[in-house]
Design a protein that fits this description.
The complex is a heterodimer of chains A (about 100) and B (about 525).
Chain A (H helix, E strand, L loop, with lengths): L6 H11 L5 H18 L34 H6 L17
Chain B lengths: L7 H9 L5 H19 L2 E4 L1 H16 L11 E5 L26 H8 L3 E6 L33 H8 L5 E6 L5 H7 L2 E4 L19 E6 L2 H11 L29 E5 L9 H16 L3 E5 L7 H16 L18 H12 L2 H14 L4 H25 L2 E5 L15 H6 L5 H5 L4 E8 L5 E8 L4 H12 L8 H8 L12 H7 L5 H11 L4
The chains are: A mainly alpha (about 100), B alpha/beta (about 525).
Chain lengths: ~100, ~525
């Protein structure tokens, strides 16, 4: 395997991805990611000098529209999906001491 | 012939002429669902009460002449990543085990405006990441042609449900082949429209630059009618395109004289199951005899599509799925210390292994120091792949390809080696990268009796050419669903008729993960709560 993923890299990616992996999952992730990157390295065979990266297949531009309120008050419906709520807000663990 | 054998458009005519009522059609589907689900598991949620109530409402509108379209009153199943107001939408994930959307996806709204009756939500690979429907948190779906095999994925539930006559058509979504490949495995017809044709509003995002909603049905005529209903310019989706012509049913003409068909040599070489190859080339021969001009060519760059796709799709997924944090909806871990621990624990417990794998890969290729080497490189590769298709479409109207290198694999064979599973997407993925439309039409079976599909690929906005070619081919054979569909239909109606409860009731009781499973299990056993 050409791409060897270190413990530090997995830790770092875990922070970016906001995932907490078990030791077993970390080992699997190191292996899987290494194999995937080996495979993805195939792209290096291609000469892409001077090629514009294509994020969108059509030449679309920013789409602007007036910011008009179309929906009514759906607070209750939205809060009904929250794991923890008061009558008017989502509740999260304390963020500052 | 029972009504379940009808196509969606045929049923629409029967309803219009009063030969059958909407409620009878819906009830026929619900009866079939009750018989089929213990074997096939194509649905995550079945909305029995809602569908029957809606059936009566639609019937009144038809009777009053307010609904006159070809799909008025026809029951549909919707993939579980399309939001449906008041109806559980799980994306096949524990993360959304209790999510009741406050709004309905635009594609589904368009169908409702056309008089569709939604029966329920179909099973799928978790967040559409997978090729077998085995990564669903709600159990795997089985292929109605052979219950030991997968239905394909990620829209495996939609395709299996259509194949086994649990519904008359379904909606799926296609990010890297998720409509076309399971359609091939289940012997049904599936269409992935040109990017931007169908609004993505209310489709839970996976790879936003690749995702498209499309129809799964019994034949090309149904696919054309459904696409005509769901295609719309939607200001709520900034990538939605205003198309001048969406009268797709006009292309249902049995005439391919002069149609230029390209056969990419690099799609028919090594790695392709010979029976798949033969069935497709035989289908091409049918089109040639009808007057199409067939020629081989080299598409090139085929082997670069999969690595480019997995970089782009994973990158977009890692960004899109960051919204699942246990705050506003979905799963929240029960034990944590502080906010960040809550985020991490909720996500780690809520997502399954394939989703985590792609989020990790996506986060990595977007991270500082690797962005240019991986993400930008993939976007440049995408530009080259698009250019290769542009060159091909200068010479051809339609490109014919397999939808998958093989027929449906056995259950349990695919997930142990992710890269091997990704390689199966080789014929479908470039179409998403280039934003093209693709249509899968059944064209035969292998020695085990498993279906084979032919994929027709068109240039952007050329769905009509695909529909014309698919329709002309289809006239040479009649639709034959799996024997299971007819066997189940002949079974006596289940004695214990217990339905799922209403969505609100369900939501209020879905306090712990697992209640959705339990309720389903109770319902299938026909027992009481």
């Amino acid at each position: 395997m050409a791409n060897v993923i270190s413990d530090a890299t997995i830790e770092y990616v875990g922070i970016l991805a906001k995932l907490e992996l078990s030791e077993e999952e970390k080992e699997a992730a190191k292996r899987d990611m290494g194999r995937m990157l080996d495979y993805i390295d195939k792209l290096n065979e291609l000469d892409t000098d001077g090629v514009e990266p294509m994020s969108h297949v059509f030449p679309v531009h920013n789409v602007f529209r007036e910011d008009v309120v179309e929906n009514g008050d759906v607070r209750e419906v939205l809060l009904a999906n929250g794991p923890e709520c008061t009558d008017e807000a989502f509740v999260v663990p304390k963020t500052i001491e | 012939m029972g009504i379940l054998e009808l196509t969606a458009v045929e049923l629409g005519k029967w309803i219009k002429s009063g030969r059958v009522t909407v409620e009878e059609a819906v009830q026929a589907c619900l009866d079939q669902i009750k018989k089929a689900e213990p074997r096939v598991n194509a649905f995550v949620t079945i909305d029995e009460e809602g569908a029957l109530c809606r059936a009566r409402e639609v019937q009144r509108k038809i009777d009053r002449g307010e609904l006159t379209g070809p799909l008025a009153g026809v029951p549909v199943a919707v993939k579980d990543n399309l939001c449906t107001r008041g109806l559980l939408t799980t994306c096949g994930s524990k993360m959304l085990y209790n999510f009741i959307p406050p709004y309905t996806a635009e594609a589904v709204l368009n169908l409702e405006r056309a008089g569709a009756v939604v029966l329920g939500k179909t099973n799928m690979d978790e967040f559409a990441m997978g090729s077998t429907t085995e990564t669903s948190a709600y159990g795997e779906t089985r292929n109605p042609w052979n219950l030991e095999h997968v239905p394909g994925g990620s829209s495996g539930g939609s395709c299996a449900a259509v194949a086994v006559n649990e519904c008359f058509y379904a909606l799926g979504s296609d990010t890297g082949g998720s409509i076309r490949q399971p359609s091939s495995f289940c012997g049904v017809t599936g269409l992935k429209p040109t990017y931007g044709t169908v609004s993505r509003y209310g489709l839970v995002a996976y790879g936003s630059s690749l995702d498209q909603v499309g129809p799964v049905a019994k034949d090309v005529a149904d696919c054309a009618a459904v696409l005509e209903a769901i295609a719309s310019h939607d200001p709520k989706d900034s990538t939605s395109i205003k198309r001048a012509d969406t009268r797709f049913t006009e292309a249902l003409v049995d005439d391919v004289r002069g149609l230029r068909i390209g056969i990419p040599r690099d799609y028919f070489g090594e790695g392709l199951n010979p029976s798949v190859r033969d069935a497709i080339l035989k289908a091409v021969e049918v089109l040639r005899q009808k007057g199409a001009v067939v020629e081989e060519f080299d598409l090139s760059l085929v082997e670069y599509a999969i690595p480019a796709y997995y970089v782009i799709a994973s990158a977009e997924a890692s960004s899109n799925l960051s919204r699942f944090d246990g705050v506003k909806y979905g799963y929240r871990a029960s034990a944590y210390e502080g906010l960040h621990s809550m985020y991490k624990k909720s996500r780690s417990e809520g997502f399954g292994p394939e989703v985590k794998r792609r989020i990790m890969l996506g986060s990595f290729v977007l991270s500082s120091g690797y962005y240019d080497a991986y993400y930008l490189k993939a976007l440049k590769t995408k530009a080259l792949i698009k250019a290769a298709f542009d060159r091909a479409f200068a010479s051809f109207d339609v490109i014919v390809a397999p939808a998958s290198p093989d027929t449906a694999p056995r259950l349990g064979q695919s997930l142990c080696d992710p890269i091997q599973m990704y390689l199966g997407d080789i014929y479908t993925i470039s179409v998403n990268l280039a934003g093209l439309p693709g249509l899968t039409v059944p064209c035969g079976t292998d020695s085990l009796g498993l279906p084979i599909g032919m994929q027709l690929i068109g240039d952007c906005f050329q769905e009509k050419k695909l529909i014309r070619a698919g329709y002309a081919f289809e006239q040479s054979r009649c639709y034959q669903g799996p024997a299971l569909a007819r066997e189940l239909e002949r079974l006596p109606k289940s004695e214990k008729q217990r339905g799922l409860s209403g969505a609100e009731e369900k939501a209020s009781r879905a306090e712990a993960f697992g209640s959705a499973f339990k309720e389903r299990a109770d319902w299938m056993k026909g027992g009481s709560k």
